[in-house]
Amino acid sequence: MIRTPLRPLARILKARDTGGDPDQIERDNKRQRHEEMRDTMRARAEGRFLVLGFFFVCAFMAVGARMSVLAVSEATEPRASAGGAAISAARADIVDRNGNLLATNFETHALYAQPPLMVDPEGAAEHLAKIFPDLDGARLKKDFTGKRKFLWIRRKISPEQMQAVHEIGEPGLLFGPRDMRLYPNGALAAHILGGASFGKEGVSAAEVIGVAGVEKYFDDYLRDPANGAAPLELSIDLTVQAASERVLWGGMKLMNAKGASSVLMDAHTGEVISAVSLPTFDPNNRPRPLTEGDASDSPLFNRSVQGVYELGSTFKIFTAAQAIDLGLVNANTVIDTSGPMKVGGFRIGEFQNKNYGKLSVTDIIVKSSNRGTARMVLDIGTKRQKDFLKSLGFFEATPFETVEAKTGKPLLPERWGDLSSVTISYGHGLSSSPMHLAAGYAAIANGGYAVTPTILKRTQAAKGAQVMSPEAARIARGMLRKVVTEGTASMGDVPGYAVGGKTGTADKPKPRGGYYDDKVIATFATIFPAHDPKYVLIVTLDEPEETSGTKPRRTAGWTAVPVAAEMIGRVAPLLGLPPSVEPTELAGITFTSSN
């Protein structure tokens, strides 16, 4: 680095020697240095101004571009949502197997207030209390005249209510557009659909989320814009569902039952064509859950999947089918059902202390003998019985696609020995849901293949594991048909549809142990048509009483059977099943030639 001296000493000394003016030389040198410093500082300042000017130009260009974008875009109101996240109100429709609408979005408005903008807050409160009788007028006055700057009045209002609020003429009462979930069929299929509510909310939009049923189970699918608004197709048939609900409601009232449920399932695909739980509710105005008492008292309780009951003698056909499949018996094998019979120190009795004596396996099912199925299951053995029932799905909650189904896990005995095997063989000691029972009967109806219950429409049968031989399933179907034609379900026959089924009446357990003497769960499990089964129907009544006689009758033969028969008669034509003559053997007829 070359340093320039502040004083030109060489020139000053030379000037002194030659008689020159050294002061003038020093003044000239100082002036020259100041001029150089000034030029440097000016150049630096000009550079800074140039850079600053460039930044100002860029900033003004950005502001101008943004203003241009806003000028050509649609005006929107700022959203008061959590974290500034955008609210998506889009939600796909839900339709039945034929495309009939079950759930859709409907444009409505919310009502909110900004008290600082109000002209007459007290008058507005009085008018709102008249339009919405459930609102507290005094509370509204306090909120409107206090320090609050914003409050919701109603999350959704009808067009008539909106017009009435308009007529108040209060500038502080404002409306926010939003979509709400609409169920155009009201309470129809309520337990399947479940219901929806609002999630994140802003003044200009609200997030619609599922809270129960398929709405919650398929919430991600229904809210996903990647699906292109494709509707969710369910397996249920709207007309069949409506007919089933109407018949079951009438049957529940006629039989004085506390509640009722039914499941209609395609025996080959596992598709649920209808599922009813009574009492029911309207998902457009979903009630609040119970906070105390028995959960089954709530109309929100889905009896078809959440209700786990001892389903009584409907289980006997599983014992007979397994024994036949294992080669231990055939349909005509005779078993002595005479008493007394004790297992593990406990007496095994018959209904009304009957003593049937020696019966064939078919007659054991037709007459519903407890001791007959008990003797078969002792030959089967506990391990094989458990494996068989597990293969039918009785050990886990059904994978049915509603959020409630996972809570309907079967209740199994803690110690499963010979006594448990015997009682389970005739439907006591193991509690399961009607949906479990429908899947079990479907395996008998379809030739021995396990099925998975589903609420989604399927285009083809999805065969599960083979749980019994086709021959064992065929023989079991013949037994179920005889129960209707000759046994405990004589009122279950429907002309033209060859119904087969099994009754089951189980004493209802008390909450703290033991059983009621006068309360039962009555069930009729059916397949139809029995000679070529297409469908399984389970009808269950909670605490039924048929009172047309001198004494109340509570057994399934008097209560659940006639209700199921009426339901089959109503829905079979809707399912495309024309009545037909049941094929029979032409015994005693001899054909001769006319030649």
Give short descriptive properties of this protein.
Beta-lactamase, five-stranded mixed beta sheet, elongated, 3 domains, alpha+beta, Penicillin-binding protein 2a (Domain 2)
Sequence-ordered SSE layout with sheet pairings:
Elements: H1 9-18, H2 22-72, E1 94-95, E2 101-113, H3 121-131, H4 137-145, E3 151-157, H5 159-166, E4 173-182, H6 190-193, E5 195-201, E6 206-212, H7 213-217, H8 219-223, E7 232-233, H9 238-254, E8 259-266, E9 272-278, E10 309-310, H10 316-325, E11 334-336, E12 342-343, E13 346-347, E14 358-360, H11 361-367, H12 370-380, H13 382-391, H14 418-425, E15 431-432, H15 434-445, H16 470-486, E16 500-509, E17 515-528, E18 535-542, H17 560-574
Parallel strand pairs: 1-7
Antiparallel strand pairs: 1-2, 2-3, 2-4, 5-6, 8-9, 8-18, 10-15, 11-14, 12-13, 16-17, 17-18
Helix pairs in contact: 1-2, 3-4, 9-17, 10-12, 10-16, 11-16, 12-14
Q: What can you tell me about this protein's structure?
A:
- The structure is a single chain.
- By secondary structure, the protein is of the alpha+beta class.
- It folds into 3 domains: 8-32, no CATH class; 92-233, Penicillin-binding protein 2a (Domain 2) (Alpha-Beta Complex), CATH 3.90.1310.10; 239-287 and 294-574, DD-peptidase/beta-lactamase superfamily (Beta-lactamase, 3-Layer(aba) Sandwich), CATH 3.40.710.10.
- It is 35% helix and 18% strand.
- The chain has helices at 9-18, 22-72, 121-131, 137-145, 159-166, 190-193, 213-217, 219-223, 238-254, 316-325, 361-367, 370-380, 382-391, 418-425, 434-445, 470-486, 560-574, and strands spanning 94-95, 101-113, 151-157, 173-182, 195-201, 206-212, 232-233, 259-266, 272-278, 309-310, 334-336, 342-343, 346-347, 358-360, 431-432, 500-509, 515-528, 535-542.
- The strands form 6 sheets. Strands 1, 2, 3, 4 and 7 form a 5-stranded mixed β-sheet that branches. Strands 9-8-18-17-16 form a 5-stranded antiparallel β-sheet, sandwiched between helices.
- α11 (361-367) crosses α16 (470-486).
- It starts with 8 loop residues before the first helix and ends in a 21-residue tail after the last helix.
